[in-house]
Every structure is written in C-alpha cells, then in structure tokens.
From TrEMBL:
Pfam families: ADH_N (PF08240), ADH_zinc_N_2 (PF13602). Keywords: Oxidoreductase. PROSITE patterns: QOR_ZETA_CRYSTAL. It comes from Microlunatus ginsengisoli. The keyword Oxidoreductase applies. Residues 32-344 form the Enoyl reductase (ER) domain. This is NAD(P)-dependent alcohol dehydrogenase.
C-alpha cells in the first residue's frame, strides 16, 4: 500500500458554521470491513484559521480509503491513523465542491469558489481542508471528474516527475497501468514524451491502450520479469514482484520507482518492506531504486488541471455512487476491479 495522506490537523473553532448545524456523513467507529460504515447525521466540522469549509459535491474513492477503513497494514495505526480505531470518524479524502466559508487567515479562497483536492472526511455533505491541498476546479470539469483526480493524479505525477525524473524519449514500464494511479501515470508519461508500456490484466488491455499506452502487456499471460525487455524507468503499482524481479526489467542504469502493491503481510505490508529494502540497497547498485510517498498539493493539482485542459489527460470514471452507497463503492474498489475511478456524489 504506502499511503501517506494522514496530515490532518485538529480544527480550531474560530469561524461560525454558516450551513446546517448537522450533515449526513459516512462514519466508522472501529477498524473493519465496509459493513462497519454507517450513514449518520453528525455535526458539521468546525473550520480552523488556515482551513476552508467545503460543501462537498463529489468525493473520489481510492484504495487508501480501504486501508484507513480496515487499519491494514497495521503499521498505519502507528503512523497516525489511530491505534485502536480510526482517528478520523468520517471516511474519504478526495473532494470536489464549493467553498462555504474560510478560516480567519485564509486569503487564497473565498466562499463560492469551486475547488478540488484533499480534505478530512470527504464522504459527507461538508468537509474541512487545508488550503495548500486545494486548487481551483477547472471550469471544464464536472465535480465528479474533479473528485477523481487528487490522490491518484498527484501520486502519478510525483512518481514520474519528481522521483522518477522522467525525460522525453525514455522507455517507461508502468505496472498496474489500469488502476487509479496507473491510468494517470500512462497519460502523464506520454505527455512528457516517453514511450510507454502498460501492464494490466487481459480484461483491461483495451482500456490502457485507449488512454495512449504505446504497448500493453497482459500480466496473466506474460511474465514481464523474464521477457528480456529493459526499461529506463519502471513504475510499480501492482502485484507483488520481488526487487530482483523488478530490477531485471531495468536497463543497467535505469530507475525503479515503487509506488505500491497490495501483496504481503498485514503487519507492515509487503510493498512497504520491499520499498524500504530498495532504498537501502540503492546506494550500492548502479540502478536507482526509489519509493514514493505521494501527497496532494495545490501546485500539482494545478499542473494536472493544465494537462487536462490541454487534452493530454482524460479522466476515466467507472461509475459514481450516492452517499448512502459509499460502502458498496469501497467494496467494488477492493474486489470488483473497476475500469477507472469510482466517485461518490453528495
Ligand atoms: N505511495 C503512495 O503515495 C501511494 C499513493 C496512492 C496509491 N498507492 C498504492 O499504489 C497501489 C496502486 O494504487 P491504485 O489506486 O492505482 O490501485 P488500483 O486502482 O487498485 O490498481 C491496482 C492495479 O494493479 C494491477 N495489478 C493487480 N495485480 C497485478 C499484477 N500481478 N501484476 C501487474 N499489475 C497488477 C491492476 O490491474 P488489473 O485491475 O488489470 O488486474 C491495477 O491496474 C496501491 O497499492 C496503493 O496502496 C501508493
């Protein structure tokens, strides 16, 4: 897994809540599966001096919501998500909506602005967010489309541009190309001039090709680690291949960027162990082995919006769910192998 986005600060009650005093929200008391999620009427959150209160129109769903819901791998509980149960009562992180009110120190946004980004508790009618995690919603996008972007889009951008140092003309392999992060990664890598090979299951080869991959490999019938193909940059988001298997896909001085993967133990998570091993090994080998801890931030949301505006990224939405079916959305995400992003509409 490897999900970083636990950076919620406690809200300070400085601004009055202008909306209804209560709201509908998807809440959870204890770690567990989606059956433990409930739709409840709870208090509208208080907005801190550096935050904004958003009237949520749509909330994106990603695999991090499943991790926070289940508290797995257990390492997350030590990372600030809550030891015995989820610290944040309301699920959801990715948001698109309208600013309802702003904290006393906020100058960047005003009531009525349409925004998207990361927030605390997106599966609700209202949510608070820090300004550095928001950007203006591109006018050409619906709220549903905008809510599909934040975590997956920012992670893909940071993995390729900041960690992978991608350059035009490189041969790039994207493992997990049909997933939430992968569909962004394929398109961003193409926009940055790379020759892109995507790896996914056979049922989604057409999807990955449709977003612009030059080549697509079905991992169910081809072992990418023994095919003899070598890539300058490999982004890994799917499966549980070992470090040595992944290194076989790289050129002698190639770069491996470990984003995630769902294999491995409940305690720490196989992907995290492998990433830490990669970072420790990297100084001793010619290849560069790196890991990503993505974060949602304004400037990257703006960069993604620009790529979308210029037609270089198109958004792939599998389907949207009403708020009271948020549990079904998370179930579908975890086991239903969606073709694109899932979004909850409020
Ligand atoms: N480091 C970070 O900051 C960060 C941020 C976001 C996400 N993540 C992690 O990155 C991973 C991907 O996230 P996501 O939201 O894109 O998840 P996702 O939407 O569930 O996508 C998973 C992808 O993995 C592919 N896959 C599954 N088994 C595979 C295999 N054996 N070989 C190759 N590909 C395989 C899937 O392909 P098919 O569906 O076609 O089988 C799909 O494309 C997750 O582990 C997540 O926790 C990390």
């Amino acid at each position: 897994m490897e999900h970083p986005q636990s950076d919620s600060a406690p809200a300070t009650p400085v601004a009055p809540v202008p909306a209804a005093a209560t709201m509908r929200a998807i809440v959870q008391d204890a770690y567990g599966d989606a059956d433990g999620l409930r739709l409840e009427q709870i208090a509208v959150p208080l907005v801190g001096p550096d935050d904004v209160l958003i009237e949520v129109c749509a909330a994106g769903v990603h695999i991090g919501d499943w991790h926070v819901m289940t508290g797995q791998p257990y390492l997350m509980r030590l990372m600030g998500f809550g030891f015995r149960g989820p610290k944040a009562h309301v699920r959801g992180m990715d948001v698109a909506g309208t600013v309802k009110t702003v904290g006393a120190k906020v100058t960047q946004f005003h009531a009525g602005d349409e925004v998207f980004g990361a927030c605390d508790g997106a599966f609700a009618e209202y949510a608070t967010a820090r300004v550095e995690k928001l950007a203006a919603k591109p006018a050409g996008l619906t709220f549903v489309q905008a809510a599909a972007i934040p975590t997956s889009g920012c992670t893909a951008l940071q993995a390729l541009r900041d960690t992978g140092k991608i350059t035009a003309g490189q041969r790039v392999l994207i493992i997990g190309a049909s997933g939430g992060v992968g569909l962004f990664a394929v398109q961003i890598a193409k926009a940055l001039g790379a020759e892109v090979t995507g790896v996914c299951s056979g049922a989604k080869v057409d999807l990955v090709r449709s977003v612009g991959a030059d080549h697509v490999i079905d991992y169910t019938d081809t072992d990418i680690t023994t095919s003899g193909q070598r890539y300058d940059l490999v982004l890994d988001m799917g499966g549980d291949r070992t470090l040595s298997q992944l290194r076989r896909c790289l050129t002698p001085r190639g770069t491996l960027v470990l984003v995630g993967g769902e294999g491995g133990g409940r305690l720490i998570g196989g992907a995290m162990v492998r990433s830490l091993r990669a970072v420790a090994l990297s100084p001793f080998v010619k290849q560069s082995l790196r890991m990503v801890l993505g974060t949602t931030r304004s400037e990257d949301l703006q960069a993604l919006a620009a790529l979308i505006d210029s037609g270089k990224i198109s958004l792939v939405i599998d389907r949207s769910y009403p708020l009271d079916e948020a549990a079904d959305a998370i179930r579908h995400l975890h086991t239903g192998r969606p073709r694109g992003k899932l979004v909850i509409t409020i």
